Amino acid sequence: LGMAVGLAVRPEKIEISKQRPEGVAVNLFTGTVKEIAYFGSYNTYIVQATDGLRVKITEANTSRQDLSDITWEDNVFFWWNDKAGVVLRD
Fold this sequence. Notes:
Number of strands: 7
CATH architecture: Beta Barrel
Radius of gyration: 14 Å
Strand order of the largest sheet: 2-6-3-4-5
Structural class: mainly beta
Helix content: under 10%
Shape: globular
Number of helices: 0
């Protein structure tokens, strides 16, 4: 239709990994971890995408011992499934 739209994805719907995910062909991006916050039951990452956009990603910790191998300045992949986004119009 030729109109500009935005896309919103909740931080907990975005997946993050240091390895390229198998079978993911769309909504797959790369970036560098700039900030990490640990909140007990979840971690929050601020990732700067290769285009400069900063993305907030929230990852649940499934056990007390659950420690992510992702740290500051790591290069990561991040993605979401095709049903996670909400289209926003002006």
